[in-house]
Amino acid sequence: MKKLILISLLTLVSCSNFTRTPASPPEILTSEDVQVNEVLASEVAEFQVMVEEALVWRAKAMEFAEKNAKKLKRERLTHEDIQSIHESAQTYLNLRERLMKYASKYQSLVDDGTIVKYVPGEKTSKSLNVYYIDPLDAKGQELLFQTKISLNAALVLYDSYMLGLYPYYKSRKMRKLLNTDFVGGKFEFDEITDSFFDVTQRTKMYLSIQLFDKDIAYKEASKTFVSAEEKYLDLLALQSPFYNFMKEKYKSIVDPSSFKNISNRIFDRSSFVGDLFTYSTSKVFGNSVGLIAFRKGRMTKISRREKAHIKENMKPLDILLEKTPFRLTDKFIPGFYGHVAIWVGNEDELKALGVWDNPVVKPYQEAIKDGHFIIEALRPGVQINTLDHFLNIDDLLVLRDPSLTDEQRKEFLVRAFAQIGKDYDFNFDVETDKKIVCSEIVYVVFHNIDWPTEKALGRFTISPDNVAAKVSDGVLVPVQMYSDGEKVEGDLIKAVEEKLKE
């Protein structure tokens, strides 16, 4: 069951291998001891999809707010604008309802004034209003894992409000639109705003963060093994804008020792808003749209000449695979390569193939002239991007189908351009093309190839490694390869096969 859950997530934006923590000493739990039960593993799989959806919603909401900043305040909104806002608001409410279930489900450790003590080696137990949590026994592990699920769900909710909803809500015109002109329920967004600023909820979060920080510090110091699911939850929390805000700005203000006197502690709302949103926009904007990364890719450092060389050796319908181990999603998903895209070529090449003036291609002529040669499915949807945009990666593999005729190239290129604008497929199902996941782009475009797929949770999925596997049977030929930012020479077929074993 657990294997199926992991397979079902293979086709997220980044789907590379997870490097586990080294085995721990005998007195510490080992990989054999730390097994997430099927129910919790299934919940993390479902929760990760919600996180991905929330990141997409957040990115689109922020983009719309930035693009229409004057309209949100004073200028006239078109009916199309209003429809977009209504649709976005409904998506937010649906996501919030689903996330709230996880935020509240495992919150009991920080409810009702319970004092939580982190006691490695002393056994998990409860005495009156004190809960002793031992990370080394099964019960303690389960409680900590559950608390991390709730903490992360709450953080996603806070981040989504802070970065995706507040830019609208601070406008009087938008508050009226959301509260009185929205079908989802009158003044529902006022209630959500009050919840965001509620000091009781924020104090519970602070208590959860304290427990989380102790667990992280202990397990790092003792080199305790953690599951892939728990590692994902740890990294997700650590990159959260609101988590870092609470750690840096309100550590000395939200004092759990004064929890019983919470009614006597009144936060100045305007001061809180000012601090919070100044912090978020100045420090964490880069991660807020969902491209959660801990550094830049090795290939961002290659020379201009090397980039030109990569372009010169590309041909229309070359398949690009990449690896980004520095991104959050790569930490949870098995397999080596994490993303697939298609090179469509430049103006001259498209003209030579007779597709330049095709109605499907024509809307993108200016973008192609400006260097946009890569079609890829990202979380905000299928886009056409530049090589510079794509090369924020560590590893690159370029594959080519040598059997294609000019007629097939023409047909497949038109089909590739027809995917632009489609939404990202969070169901990861290759048997529908209404929405597209990253590795599914080749499944949709290359009808001449019998692609290997895997069935999980009732759906057929295709992973980037499934695509690369076509090298071994001679269907695809590797023509360019980079590993950790360095060009790979020699027998590329053997090099690809070795990568797929890692």
TrEMBL record:
<protein>
    <submittedName>
        <fullName>YiiX/YebB-like N1pC/P60 family cysteine hydrolase</fullName>
    </submittedName>
</protein>
<dbReference type="InterPro" id="IPR024453">
    <property type="entry name" value="Peptidase_C92"/>
</dbReference>
<feature type="signal peptide">
    <location>
        <begin position="1"/>
        <end position="19"/>
    </location>
</feature>
<dbReference type="InterPro" id="IPR038765">
    <property type="entry name" value="Papain-like_cys_pep_sf"/>
</dbReference>
<dbReference type="Pfam" id="PF05708">
    <property type="entry name" value="Peptidase_C92"/>
</dbReference>
<keyword id="KW-0732">Signal</keyword>
